[in-house]
Write the structure tokens for this entry.
Amino acid sequence: MEQLKMTNLDFNGRVAIVTGAGQGMGREHAKMLASRGARVVVNDVNAANAAEAVAEITNAGGTAVVDSHNVVTEAPEIVQTALDSFGQLDIVVNNAGINAFGRFWEMEADTWWRIFDVAVKGVVGVSRAAMPHLIASGTGRLINISSNGVMGVPTDSAYNAAKAAIWGLGITLAAEAREVGVQVTTLMPVALTPMTEDAFPNPVIKDAMRTTVPASSVSAFVTWLAHQDTAVFGETFEIAGVAAGRVAIAGMPRMKVEAPTPESWADSGEVLMKDGELRAFRNASESFRDQMVYLAPELDEVLPANAADVSR
């Protein structure tokens, strides 16, 4: 794949929405995009924070407007702000999120669902409202913020469940949107933000993150992905500081039992739990096909690569 090589990326007035951009990583995304010539809708339910971010951008010579609509209940209005202010929409960075900690069965249900909804309903609502305009743009970019918390962090079930949903949605949208010229990418960032300040009480960890993984480093990666000439998309990336890598679901070696009985599995538990070489699965079809061919090797000759594709 031909890689983009430029000294300065210029968005030439393309329009971006960044949700949750009043502080933390979202504000850094908005500032970085504006610094490279994008016109930015700074969305945050905290209007004062959004106004501060816009002031930073405009004082530095950039162009931005405040939007304080709720991503869960007012997603179409966020998109409308972009259209009313700038007449187009080319980029969406779904960054908004909140968090709280507690054991799954002890956390108040309303709190749990609020954390989940801000992330998941926010991404779904804004993305659905934005898609017709991203398609019309011809250089549409949709960047969703997930988290490596999908791998499991105790006392953080609502956030991690939400970020897992965003990951699954992003993988699916990447395949669908590719057909209409919109590039969708999912990120699992690591950075020191107001949210992670609360998450890590250990001062050693905070100091290490402050010097090694500032939020602006993630914004550099986001801005590159959002650019109209960037051809890298459709994957999930971990990004921290100046390091990034692709993320995929992987499976340990498969094993069989002689018969589909509970007793057979009881006899084979130790074998099932043995470590071995990992195999990456980048989509459901790769996993499904691998399972089927393992059970019936003759299927290797007849199953297509997109065996799990249910589209008609």
